[in-house]
Amino acid sequence: MNDQIPIKDVTPVKVHKPDPKKHDNSYRPRSQIYVRKVKGALETFRRFFGLFFLAMFAVLPWLQYNGQQAILLDIGEQRFNIFGLTLWPQDLTLLAWLFIISAFALFFVTTFAGRVWCGFMCPQTTWTYIYIWFEEKIEGSRNKRIKLDERKMDFDKFWRKSLKHIAWVMVALLTSLTFVGYFTPIDALFIEFFTFEAGFWAVFSVWFFTLCTYGNAGWMREIMCTHICPYARFQAAMFDRDTLTVSYDPNRGEGRGPRPRKLKHEELKDKGLGDCIDCYLCVQVCPTGIDIRNGLQYECINCGACVDACNGVMEKMNYPKGLISYTSETALSGGKVKVFRPKLIGYAVVLAVMVGLFVYEVVSRVPLEIDIIRDRNALYRETSDGLIENVYTLKVLNKSQHTQSYLIQIDGLTDARYIGENQVTVEGGEVLNLPISVAVDPYNLDGMTTVFRFSVSATGDASEGVMVSEEVKFIYR
C-alpha cells in the first residue's frame, strides 16, 4: 500500500474588492422613459378608441334597470345582476364560458393583428397615457421634463411635481371608486366614502385599488408590460409569418443616416443612404422605450406610435410613408400574405362554437332552482290515523329579478297526502325555505323506499313553461 494521493499546492487567489472611489455607482436597473408626444392617424384612433371604452367603464355602473343598478356584481350576496340577468354560484359555467370565449378571442386577434390588445384596449396602456397627458400639461414637453428632473428642487419644480402627483392620485381615486362601484351600489358608495360612513372593506378596497392604479400607471408603466404581464411572454406562440405587427422595413431604410432635406429621394442610392434619417423619434415616442428598427421584440405593444412618428418625418422629407408600418414578415420578404391560414381558421371555428354554446346556455337557462332536504331527526313517523309520514324542507330559489308565484306538486305516490303550502310567492333573488310533509297509506308502498318527484312550476303568463322537478325518496321501515 505505497500509493499516495498526490497533493497539489494551490496558491490562494487574492480577491480584489472594487474601490468605491473609482466607481460612481451610476448603474440603474431601470432608466426612466420620457415619452414624446406624437400626432397621426393611429394616435387619433387610439385616443378615441380608448376614450370610448373608458367612457363605458365610467358610465355602466351608474345605469339603472328595473329600479336597481343595471350591473352589480354583489360578491357578499353571491349574486351578479347584469341588466335583466341574475347569475348565482350555480351559474358558474356561464362565467367559465365567458372566460374561454375571451381567451380564444384574444388568441384569434393576436394571430391576425399581433399585440393590438396591449396597444389599444389594455387598461394599463390607457391609464398610462392618461398619466402621461397630465405630465405634458403640467411639466411640459419631453425635453422640458428631462431638464426639470435634472434640476435641483426649487419652487417651480416643487409645485409642478406636487400638482402632477395630486392629479395622478385623483384619477386613481376616481378609477378605484368606479371599479368598486361594480361590486357595491355605486351611488351609496360615493356618498358614504366622502362622508366617512363607508364600511371597512369598502374603504380598504377603494384605497387598495387607488394605490394599484397610481403605482402601475404612474411609476411602473412599461415594467407591467415587459416583466409582469404574462401575455408578453406567450404571445410569440400565437405569431406566424403572416401576423400583422409593427415592423421596420430594413430593405428600404438602410443605410440610415442624416442628410440635407433638399436631397431628393431618387438620389439616396447614389449616396449609399436609405430612407431612415436616424432621427430616433421612433424610440422617443415608444412607451416601452424600444427601437423598432432592431426587429420584433416582446416589449412592443403594437400601439403604432412609432408608425405615426416615422410617417410624419417621411412626409417632411417628401419620402413615401410606410417605412414603419403594420405589416407581416412575409410581406417584408416580398411574399404573398395568407389571410385564411389553418391556425387562424382553427381559432375562428373554436371561437364560433364557444359563442354558440354560451348563447345556448343563456337562452336555455331556467330562472328557478329547488333543493329538497329530508328531516334528519327521524326517517319516518306513523300518524294517528295509520299513515306513514316523511318530513322535508323544500328550498325554492327565484333566480329572476321579479317576484314570482310557484305551484308545488308531487307525482309517483299513490293516494299521497300533501301537508303544507302548495302555492308560494318568492321575491326576486330570494330563497324560500318551506317545511312540508307527505303522508301515504303503508298498503300503497311497495318496499322500504319509494322514489317520487317534487315539481315546482311558475304561474302567470310571463313565466309560462318555467318548471323544475327533482326526485326524492319516501322511506318506510
UniProtKB/TrEMBL annotation:
Note the InterPro entries from the entry.
Answer: 4Fe4S_Fe-S-bd, 4Fe4S_Fe_S_CS, Cyt_c_oxidase_cbb3_FixG, Electron_Trans/Redox, FixG_C, Helical_ferredxn, Ig-like_fold
Q: Which UniProt keywords apply?
A: 4Fe-4S, Electron transport, Iron, Iron-sulfur, Membrane, Metal-binding, Transmembrane, Transmembrane helix, Transport
Which spans are transmembrane here?
Answer: 45-63, 94-114, 166-186, 198-217, 344-363
Record bears the keyword Cell wall biogenesis/degradation: no
Domain of life, per lineage: Bacteria
- State a single Pfam family of this protein: Fer4_18
- Keyword Iron-sulfur among record annotations: yes
Using the record for this protein, list the coiled-coil segments as residue ranges, or answer none.
none
Annotated 4Fe-4S ferredoxin-type domain ranges read 264-295
Q: By its UniProt entry, which PANTHER family does this protein fall under? A: FERREDOXIN-TYPE PROTEIN NAPH (PTHR30176:SF3)
Q: Which NCBIfam families match?
A: ccoG_rdxA_fixG
Protein name in the entry: Cytochrome c oxidase accessory protein CcoG
- Which source organism does the UniProt entry give? Fluctibacter corallii
